[in-house]
Design goal:
By secondary structure, the chain is an alpha/beta fold. Helices cover about 40% and strands about 20% of the residues. The strands form three sheets. The protein has an eight-stranded parallel beta sheet. The protein has a five-stranded mixed beta sheet with strand order 11-12-13-14-15. It has a two-stranded antiparallel sheet with strand order 1-2. Helix 8 packs parallel to helix 9.
């Protein structure tokens, strides 16, 4: 059982963040900012895939219309990603944004910071401060000799101080590096120095394959320490894949119970059935099933039922056939052509 670090709680729309609330999976729209129809459709797809917080870029005033349209089209919270222009933060708040991602130190005068803090406080909108290795202030980089974990945290807490001066405390922090070890250490340091909820992730993690590996290494390490209140697995890929990977990571750590947990063996020379194809097909069929169960897909009848006896239901392949087992005991033998349908029928009974 993972003991999570205690953080204060804020709310992005209907989703609580921190304070022991379930860890939310976040992703970001990647359609052109002015493509209203494309962003709305992608947001709907992400919501259907299980995304719990959706972020989108607001680079100019025209993009606020996209934010508004997306907000009207989905029920999950929508985050406005703002860089430098405080007026866009004000307009995004007025358009219904559930959270604003902005760095107060980059938006000009103290009056600008105060205006954003005041608007967000009035509307009950939290602000996420997002620091990465490319956004650290020059004097902090010089002090630490580069974008070290210490530099990332110092930068983040500098931005926090600007909001605290405005009596604003509904803050979420992120300190992302493209380096796994630096990312982990930065969040560890931040967790020691403040109790603001943390959005964790590895920035610029890479393609789907590389990005999932890097993100799982960093986020897995942090989550096992109890650090992290929202997550994003950033990939150079379809955002839907980010959501699927994030959900799978939380499930693997026991931090999310909803949905099917697939257990499958890596195959060996005893396997006489196309287990790789079978496991993928079963995983696809069960991807949207809202049952908290474990399903095993094992390669041989000799060891499979025993090795996966902890699964709620499972199959073990034979020579042109398979057995369906439950609690380590064989229920029935089925032909290769009917394995999936027979398994689905048994799952329906659970």
């Amino acid at each position: 059982m993972i003991e999570r670090r205690k953080t204060r709680q804020v709310a992005a729309g209907s989703v609580p963040i921190g304070g022991g609330a379930p860890i939310a999976v976040q992703s970001m729209l990647n359609k052109p900012a002015h493509d209203i129809e494309g962003n709305v459709e992608q947001a709907k797809t992400l919501e259907k895939a299980g995304c719990e917080i959706i972020r989108l870029s607001v680079p100019d005033k025209e993009a606020v219309k996209t934010l508004y349209a997306v907000k009207q089209s989905v029920s999950v919270p929508v985050v406005a990603d703002i860089h430098f222009d405080y007026r866009l933060a004000l307009e995004s708040a007025a358009a219904g944004a559930d959270k604003i991602r902005i760095n107060p130190g980059n938006i000009g005068s103290d009056e600008n910071v105060a205006a954003v803090a005041r608007e967000c406080k009035t509307r009950g909108i939290p602000i996420r401060i997002g620091v990465n290795s490319g956004s650290v202030e020059k004097h902090i980089l010089k002090k630490h000799g580069g974008p070290t974990p210490e530099a990332l945290v110092e930068s983040a807490l500098y931005h926090v101080s600007l909001l605290e001066k405005c009596d604003f405390y509904d803050i979420v922090l992120s300190m992302k590096s493209s380096d796994v070890v630096s990312t982990v250490r930065a969040y560890e340091l931040a967790s020691e120095r403040c109790d603001y909820p943390l959005h964790i992730g590895v920035t610029e993690a890479g393609t789907e394959r590389t990005g999932i590996i890097k993100s799982s290494a960093a986020l897995g390490a942090l989550l096992l320490e109890g650090i992290g209140d929202t997550i994003r697995i950033s990939l150079t890929a379809d955002p839907v894949n980010e959501v699927a990977a994030g959900i799978a990571l939380l499930k693997s750590l026991g931090l999310r119970k909803q949905g099917v947990n697939i257990i499958s063996c890596p195959t060996c020379g005893r396997t006489k059935i196309d287990l790789i194809k079978l496991a993928n097909e079963i995983e696809n069929r069960l991807s949207n099933l809202d049952k908290n169960i474990s399903v095993a897909v094992m390669g041989c009848v000799v060891n499979g039922p025993g090795e996966a006896s902890h699964a709620d239901i499972g199959i073990a392949g034979g020579d042109g056939c398979a057995v369906i087992f439950k609690g380590g005991k064989v229920l029935k033998k089925v032909s290769e052509d009917n394995i999936i349908e027979e398994l689905m029928a048994e799952i329906e009974k659970l």
